[in-house]
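Hello, quick one for you while I still have it in my head. A protein chain has come my way and I'm curious about its shape. I'm sending you its amino acid sequence along with the backbone structure tokens. I'd be grateful if you could look everything over and explain what you see. Here's the protein in full, and shout if anything looks odd to you:
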Amino acid sequence: MKITTLLLIPGLAFFVLAIPPTAAAKDKKKHSDRGMLESMEAIPCGAKQRGLTGLGSVFGSVGVEHVNSDEKLCQQYLLRTDEMEYEIRPIDSKHPAILPIGHEGEFKIKKDEMHLKVPDGDRKTRAYQVVGVKPVRSERKTEASEYYPPEKNSDNVAKKAPEKPDPPN
């Protein structure tokens, strides 16, 4: 009887250890990434022109060249994660919402859009266009990738045998 229990215990332990990885594999839902909204800038992203410039040569010969042009500004945010910095602009440029700077946001990237939700704010998910992406450089990573030549200590020079003077000619 004791032999069967000794054989049964390792078999049960194997099944208990084998179940959690298969259960985690069934979780196909991709969880949201998190990032901090660092800053917002007003970036020129186009110009509105109204006037008679489209008719060009007809009114240009008469001397009529009245144009109203206003430079259009768009919001551009910097969203920083542990590994990357994303520069994003709202896709809905007619009714953009102002995001709270200094708050954390949850996002998912689908195709060429970032869907961002700020849990501390109004909790709506909005679509943003990713304009720029760059990796965050940490001090540890750059030190590990740089080459430093070996240092020459004065102790190593003293341990060498002294050079013999040249024999006289």
Observations:
- Residues 31-138 form one domain.
